[in-house]
Automatic annotation (TrEMBL):
It comes from Halalkalibacter alkalisediminis. Pfam families: Hemerythrin. This is Hemerythrin domain-containing protein. PANTHER family: BLL2471 PROTEIN-RELATED, DUF438 DOMAIN-CONTAINING PROTEIN. Coiled coil: none annotated. It comes from the Bacteria. Residues 19-158 form the Hemerythrin-like domain.
Length: 177
């Protein structure tokens, strides 16, 4: 892992436009995630079942909207950036393995949340509602750390590894997603 840290470096690296674009996409995603997390946490404070269901329904609608923004961002990384970086460092261990694993974890939790909350109105138990909300909370925590790792390790590493031609290819390919 030391070799990967050396590639990323500790100094501030100026990112090329496509890497900066991916990093910039984290800003609205992070803000939306935070708002949804605050809504999720507020469910725990509700005493009345009807209000819990209403908030869980709001959370569900917010997560649906969030996923429509997250999916194209993830595709840019999984379909374009990760394979380009993996050509240099491999994908079975190290940063690319971790990034793909975290994508899978977050998507799995979001998918499970959406599956479990389809019939919110039929839920009669506050414990079940809290368990449903926890799937979102888990995705939130994974993505918080994940974005930070991309910004501090993966993007600077990609900046150092990718050739000028590969950066142009990256820009062209993520521009179509």
């Amino acid at each position: 892992m030391t070799q990967f840290c050396e590639l990323a470096g500790n100094e501030s690296v100026k990112l090329c436009p496509p890497l900066q674009r991916l990093k910039s996409e984290h800003v609205p995603l992070r803000a939306q995630m935070k708002n949804l997390y605050e809504l999720s946490v507020s469910i725990e404070k509700e005493k009345e079942m009807g209000r819990m269901k209403d908030k869980l329904w709001q959370l569900r609608n917010g997560v649906i909207e969030f996923v429509t923004l997250l999916d194209p961002h993830s595709e840019k990384e999984e379909g374009v950036l990760f394979p380009m970086v993996a050509n240099y460092i491999g994908k079975d261990v190290g940063p690319i393995y971790v990034m793909e694993y975290e994508h899978d974890q977050a998507k799995g939790n979001l998918r499970k949340f959406l599956e479990e909350t389809i019939h919110v109105e039929k839920c009669l138990n506050s414990i079940v509602i809290l368990e449903m909300a926890e799937f979102y909370n888990q995705a939130y925590h994974v993505l918080q750390g994940h974005f930070l790792k991309e910004e501090e390790i993966l993007f600077p590493m990609a900046e150092k590894l990718l050739t000028s031609e590969e950066k142009i290819k990256l820009e062209n390919q993520i521009g179509t997603i």
